[in-house]
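Support request from a user on the community tier.

User writes: "When I paste my structure tokens into the form, the page sometimes reloads and wipes my input. The last time it worked, I copied everything first. Here is what I submitted, just in case something in the input itself triggers the reload:"
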């Protein structure tokens, strides 16, 4: 796809963007790509701009943005009159959610470490891990 200026097939767009063809169709169905041209026989034709958008979506997913957030970000990315404050608000909200999930996972990790420390892991039936899971 590098250097290509004309439309490409879904397979070529998928390879060039690093997104599976199934996900390309999914993102199209969600309206993240806008209207994709089709040949007379109905095959999708993706432009270099579509491939660039797919890369944008892929990177956004790698950073853990939700599909709703990505839809907003794609819209802002294409809006040359956007306010960067709108983009920053989305990123700050996402960061706060990530920090909350990290804290919850750290709490889970500590609880599991404590339970493992107190479990003898021998032939006895007593097990603090099972007791904790049972709410005892």
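"...and here is what came back when it finally went through:"
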């Amino acid at each position: 796809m590098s250097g290509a200026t004309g439309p490409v097939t879904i397979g070529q767009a998928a390879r060039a963007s690093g997104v599976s063809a199934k996900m390309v169709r999914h993102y199209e169905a969600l309206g993240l790509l806008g209207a994709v041209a089709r040949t007379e026989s109905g095959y999708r034709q993706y432009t270099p701009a579509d491939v660039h958008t797919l890369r944008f979506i892929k990177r956004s997913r790698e950073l853990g943005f939700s599909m709703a957030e990505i839809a907003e970000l794609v819209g802002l990315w294409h809006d040359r009159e956007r306010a960067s404050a709108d983009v920053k608000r989305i990123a700050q909200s996402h960061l706060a959610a990530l920090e909350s999930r990290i804290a919850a996972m750290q709490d889970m990790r500590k609880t599991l470490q404590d339970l493992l420390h107190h479990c003898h892991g021998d032939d006895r039936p007593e097990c603090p891990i099972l007791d904790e899971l049972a709410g005892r």
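Agent notes: The reload is a front-end session timeout and is unrelated to the input. Helices lie at 10-17, 21-29, 48-62, 67-78, 84-118, 128-133. Residues 84-118 form the longest helix (35 residues). Escalated to web team.
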